[in-house]
Design a protein that fits this description.
61% of the residues lie in helices and 0% in strands. By secondary structure, it is an all-alpha fold.
Length: 161
């Protein structure tokens, strides 16, 4: 049948319209160049930070070992003279481990000067010279010696390198 016979007029133009074609969704891959740069910067920064932290941790491992030895010394039941000698040895070992080559050969006032940078003068003098004199050994309380040695281990700096 044709449209004139059915009584309907011309075909409805709205019926001839087709649906709107939407563009494809924007893909999130591959990211824009700026995001690549941000990702690379973050990776480099994290890698550098982790590497520096690891190197610092490795560089200061001798301090952690010395502190552990100090705690072991505190747990032992020793006389005052033994404590002083053991702590003096620990200080020298720590200085050598800190890559202070001159610490091996320092004695007397030179060793005292090195210790005195991070330790009270009286304690440094006791470890450098006084450990050979009975009178000086009794001047300082043993708990104070542990505190001073711990402070020196934590705070000393290698000024030779």
């Amino acid at each position: 049948m044709n449209t004139a016979q059915t009584g309907q007029g011309a075909p409805n133009p709205l019926e001839q319209l087709k649906d709107i074609h939407l563009p494809d969704a924007i893909s999130s891959w591959p990211p824009a160049m700026g995001w690549w740069l941000v990702t690379i910067i973050i990776i480099v920064t994290l890698t550098s930070a982790i590497t520096l932290l690891y190197l610092y941790w490795q560089k200061t491992s001798y301090k952690r070992q010395a502190i552990k030895k100090l705690k072991d010394i505190q747990l032992k039941n020793q006389t005052d003279d033994e404590v002083i000698n053991t702590l003096a040895e620990l200080l020298r070992q720590t200085a050598i481990a800190a890559n202070m080559p001159s610490a091996r050969n320092l004695h007397g006032e030179q060793w005292q000067a090195l210790l005195q940078k991070n330790m009270p003068e009286k304690t440094a003098q006791l470890f450098a010279i006084g450990r050979y004199k009975k009178q000086m050994a009794s001047d300082i309380e043993t708990p104070q010696l542990y505190t001073d040695v711990l402070h020196w281990i934590k705070k000393h700096r290698n000024e030779e390198t």
